[in-house]
Each structure stands twice: as structure tokens, then as C-alpha cells.
Amino acid sequence: MPGRDGVIASPNIWNWPDVYEAENRAQDVTGEIEAVLRDLTPWAGRDVVDVGCGTGFHLPLFAREARSVVGVEPHPPLIERARIRVTGSAVRVVRGTADRLPLEDCSVDVVHARTAYFFGPGCGPGITEAMRVLRPGGVLVVVDLDATVDPYGAWMRRDLPHYDPLTVERFFAAQGFDLRRVLTRWSFADREEAAAVLGIEFSPRVAARALRQLTGTSVEVGYRVHTRRRPHGLETA
Ligand SMILES: C[S@@+](CC[C@H](N)C(=O)[O-])C[C@H]1O[C@@H](n2cnc3c(N)ncnc32)[C@H](O)[C@@H]1O
Hints:
methyltransferase; binds S-adenosylmethionine; methyltransferase activity; SAM-dependent_MTases_sf; SAM-dependent methyltransferase; transferase
């Protein structure tokens, strides 16, 4: 749930940014999400914003081909890290939240958010805001974990007994989003790294169980990719 300032606490990356960096490196080692993003919303020559960009891990991917890239992030220490990451490039990192983007109307083609803010019911203001900054035909693409896919989903559900993935899916469907499921593989450098990453994602009990269930150093993890296009035609308020 967002706080008064609209920010959703993100202890994993706020408290352990270096472990989260290892987590990002471990995620989707075969590039399934990237392939789906390219299919759904190609960004070559386009203007892209990454909402809740954290330390900016995904900014270089977009920057290689996009016309412009802006990272939006509310947490100042992460803004600093993201800026260091993109030093020497044209990428801008600015302070802001999903429900109040520091961007002009109709100024971007792709709004990307990965495991940030758009977690289901309650993120309506961010959807409205994304539609404001998108040009007609532009796309809001939300990448999030799919808690219906085990074993990772079972670990999530154990820690978040009130989280109902189907409610989340129904919410996005009712808001006019299309859904694409993506099966990925996370692969850690070693079991020590796996333990550190599981330790920032789950309670100690669930993290210990997850580590026991992890065979070797990799695990299948499901994602949902939700997309909503800003219509070309006339919109009524
Ligand atoms: C789990 S991290 C993901 C970071 C990044 N997208 C990545 O994949 O590496 C979630 C991020 O969302 C940010 N965040 C929290 N509340 C937000 C809001 N209201 N609008 C935009 N970002 C927000 C957090 O500060 C954090 O950086």
C-alpha cells in the first residue's frame, strides 16, 4: 500500500541494494521477458520512461535503442545509484512517483514498470497518470511476479496469505490490460548468493524453506506482463 507520499516501501532494494543487484543479474537469464517486451512494445527510436526504476538496472537495455530514456524513482539513495549507473549517457533519472510523474502530457511512447507500484487494486492513479504522459498509441507495460507459478509463487503466498493473484489479474483485466504469462529461470552465481537473495525477499522461515527446495543454483519463476495501450481515437472523460 502506498504511504502518504504515494511511495510503497520496498525493503529489499532500499535496505540491500547490492543484494538486489545480484537478484537482478540472476533474473531471467534466458531473456524471456526482454523478448516479450520487444514483441509487445518495441522501443527502438521511441521515448521510454521506467517508473520505479530503483538503481536503474533496466535503463541501459532501453537506452541502447530508444530515442530517450527517463528513470523515475522516489527513493533518493536509489536515484543516486541509478544516476551513477547511467553516467555518460543521455538517460535522465528524476525523482517522482507513479501517480505524479514529472513528465509532460503525451510525451512518451512506452511506460515500463517492473515489480514497482503497479501491484493491483490501488494503482489506479498510476494507470491514469501513465495514460496522461503516453502519446496516443503508446503502451503502459507492467512486469510483475506471477504468484500462481510454483515454487516461487508458493513461497510468496506463504509470506503474503492475503495476496490473491487472481484478484490482481481480474483488476488488470477490468482496467483494459492484456496479459501475457512468461516463464523464466533465475540462476544464481552460487548457493551463497541464492541464500542472500531469498533472504531479502522472504521471511527467515520461508527463505530457509526456499533454499532447501532449491536444487542447485537455479529456479523457475513466472511473471505476468500486463499491457494497456493509450487509444488513438477520441477519449471521453
Ligand atoms: C522492487 S523495486 C524494483 C526496482 C526496479 N524496477 C528493478 O526492477 O530493478 C521497487 C521500486 O519501486 C519504487 N517505488 C515505490 N513506490 C513507488 C511509487 N509510488 N512510484 C514509483 N516507484 C515507486 C521503490 O523505491 C523501488 O525502487
